[in-house]
Design a protein that fits this description.
Blueprint: E1 12-17, H1 28-54, H2 62-72, H3 78-82, H4 87-108, E2 115-119, H5 127-132, E3 137-142, H6 145-161, E4 167-172, E5 193-199, H7 209-220, E6 223-234, H8 236-243, E7 253-255, E8 259-262, E9 278-283, E10 287-292, H9 296-305, E11 309-315, H10 316-333, E12 338-340, H11 357-366, E13 376-378, H12 381-387, E14 390-393
Parallel strand pairs: 2-3, 2-5, 3-4, 5-6
Antiparallel strand pairs: 1-6, 1-11, 6-14, 7-8, 8-9, 9-10, 12-13
Helix pairs in contact: 4-10
This protein binds S-adenosylmethionine (SAM).
């Protein structure tokens, strides 16, 4: 955990919800200032957006590239996932999502049965969490049709072994382009949701202002007053800081052995636009496609426009330490951290000793007088650095 406390981790957790009194209008002053800054920063991007909308469905839109990428990602079995270089990092992400869901359930009372929209659900990686959260109904929506098919299959397996599982429906749609609510896509047009969850997906909509707005409209029009929007997205401040253009004004890339972030030459960086600040993100085994910086103040203003109130925004390391007391058992069960030094006969996840210097230093500084050296839970440095790119929103 030592690596967590050195200030290198800059991810955030935010909690947004619609207040009990319902949606209030955004002041025109705020709206105007937002529209103005958007225009100033984003002239060329606006043109691109229009082109993209006019040729909707063709390859000029990043959405189709993203869908294609996730569609062709093969599903990994449990055994294969255990061999993964980012096994613990993925488990830590899953632990965090489980803890957020648990918080929401506590807020609503453990007996309430939530209606949920999983926006950008992928292959259904969170279905088991919804099952454990005893939710009532889940609308699973994703731009990638094959992922939605795989999500359906996963759900069918869960339903086969557990009859009392939540009901579910599946929508293949670009949620930054179409409004799911009220369209024929929702099986029950009257369904009001208690929770919208958008995990690792909101950043795709920051390609343009209309897309980000559509995504938020999908959140807000489906939530009932008092409902929650939770999610995780990338941390633009952290990405820009790590790009280090103050030290090297030409720099467009950073990363390590498991991930990289690279801005193509056409993305202006000094400063980046509010929308369409495209970079290519590579994460070993799981992601290789374009994403967009999410300028958080803009996201927050837009969310306000759609009636969402910021409840909580917590940095990643704060969230982990806040949840450690109550979530430790689950953390261990989910193998969300790697034991260091490794147990007998086990190899560390990374073969690079540099990846464990922080853990070794922590142990050296804390071993007891009798020489007893406990094991600690950590991630390899490369995984911490990749995790740090993520901002948790709630
Ligand atoms: C990194 S994956 C996360 C999947 C899942 N939420 C999870 O946490 O495991 C991002 C997902 O967002 C989906 N996505 C990207 N853009 C989208 C859009 N415009 N509308 C709906 N889904 C989208 C992708 O297809 C992909 O499944």
């Amino acid at each position: 955990m030592d690596y967590l406390s050195d200030g290198a981790v800059l991810s955030n957790e935010i909690q947004l919800h619609i207040p009990e009194e319902g949606i209030s209008a955004l002041s025109s002053e705020l709206l105007n200032s937002f529209e103005k800054s958007n225009l100033e920063h984003n002239d060329s991007e606006n043109k691109k957006t229009t082109d993209c909308q006019e040729t909707s469905g063709k390859d000029s839109c990043v959405g189709s590239v993203v869908a294609q990428h996730y569609n062709q990602l093969s599903e990994r079995g449990v055994a294969e996932r255990k061999e993964s270089r980012i096994f613990h990092m993925r488990n830590l992400n899953n632990w965090i999502k489980s803890r957020i869901i648990d918080r929401i359930r506590k807020e609503n009372g453990h007996h309430c049965r939530l209606n949920v929209l999983d926006l950008g659900c992928g292959k259904g990686g969170d279905l088991l969490k919804w099952e454990r959260g005893h939710v009532h109904h889940v609308v699973c929506a994703d731009i990638a049709e094959t992922s939605i098919e795989q999500c359906k299959e996963r759900y069918a397996k869960i339903k086969y072994r557990s009859r009392n599982v939540f009901t579910a429906e599946f929508i293949a749609a670009d949620c930054s382009k179409v409004l799911a609510k009220g369209s024929s896509k929702f099986s029950n047009h009257e369904l009001k949701l208690d929770l919208v969850s958008c995990q690792f997906a909101f950043h795709y909509s920051f390609e343009s202002l209309p897309q980000a707005e559509q995504m938020l409209a999908n959140v807000s029009s489906n939530l009932q007053p008092g409902g929650y929007f939770i999610g995780t997205t990338t941390d633009a401040d952290d990405i820009m800081r790590r790009l280090g253009r103050d030290k090297d004004s030409e720099n467009r890339k950073f990363g390590n052995s498991i991930f990289s972030v690279e801005f193509p030459p056409e993305t202006p960086l000094d400063p980046p636009p509010l929308f369409g600040a495209k970079y290519n993100f590579h994460l070993e085994e799981v992601v290789d496609c374009p994403e967009f910086l999410v300028h958080f103040p803009t996201f927050q203003k837009l969310a306000t426009k759609y009636g969402l109130t910021l409840v909580q925004k917590t940095r990643f390391e704060e969230f982990v330490s806040q949840e450690l007391d109550h979530g430790k058992d689950l953390l261990m069960r989910m193998k969300a951290l790697e034991a260091y030094p490794p147990f007998n006969n086990q190899d560390p996840v990374s073969q690079d000793l540099e990846d464990y210097v922080h853990a070794q230093e922590y142990l050296d500084s804390s071993s007891s007088a009798d020489g007893f050296r406990p094991k600690i839970g950590t991630l390899s440095k490369a995984e911490w650095e990749a995790v740090c790119k993520i901002r948790l929103t709630m």
